[in-house]
Amino acid sequence: MVTRALDVVLLGPPGAGKGTQARRLAEAFVLLHISTGDLLRDEVARGTAPGLEAKAFMNRGELVPDEVVGRMLLRQLHSQQASVGCVYDGYPRTTAQAHLLDGLLAELNRRIDVALFLDVPDEELVTRMAGRRSCPACGSVYHLTAHPPKDGANCDGCGSGLVLRDDDHDGAIRERLRVYKAATAPLLDLYRGRGILREIAGTGTPDQVHGRLRDGMRSVKR
Ligand code: ADP
Ligand code: ZN
Question: Given 22, 185, 196, 219, which is the most exposed site by the fewest CB atoms within 10 A?
C-alpha cells in the first residue's frame, strides 16, 4: 500500500498536554514528533549557541525569536525521518511561523492536513503546569497528583531524577498564557478558515484525550 506523508499540527495553550499527546499520536500514526520546546530545551542543556540565545526568553515565558526556532524546524523537516510526515507540537506559535511552515511544506509538495486544537480551561492549565515534573533524560512528563512516577521522584522509564521545568514557575506560567492568547490563539481562525481545524476537549484522562484526537484524525485520508 502506498502511503503519503501526513502533517498534523497540534495546537493548544501551554499545559494543555500537547507533549504527551503528540508523542502518542506520532507513535500511533508512525509520524515524526517535532517539539520545538523539546528541541530548544535540548539546545539549552547542551549549551549550544542557539541554546544560549533561547534560554532567557524561555525562562521568562516569552517566545524565542522566529529565526532561531525556524532553523531548528527546517533541520527536522529535512531529516530522513520526516519524510513519512510529522506531528508539530509547539509550532507554529505565530502567524509568521505558520506561513514559514506552509512554505516549507509546499516545497515538499505537502501541506498541513489537519490542525488539532486541545482545549483546556485556564484554571486547569495553571494547576497542571505547577504540578508538572519532567524527565531531563528521556523527556517523559509526569504530574505530582494526576500521573505520579511509581517511586514518587524518578522516571519510570529511565530512572533519572525528575525536575520542574525552568518555565513552570508562577511568573513564567502567567506570561506563557498571555503570549499564547496574544500570538498563538489567532492561528485557530487561520486553520478554521481552511476547514482543517478540529476542536478537541483536552480534559479527562490522557487515554480519553488520545481517543478524541484519533477521532479528530478520521477525516484525514492517507
Ligand atoms: P508549553 O507549550 O507548555 O509552553 P513548550 O515546551 O512547547 O511548552 O515551549 C516552551 C518554551 O519554548 C516556550 O515558552 C517558548 O519560550 C519556547 N518555544 C517553543 N516553541 C516555540 C516556537 N515555535 N516559537 C518560539 N518559541 C518557542
Ligand atoms: Zn526518563
Answer: 219
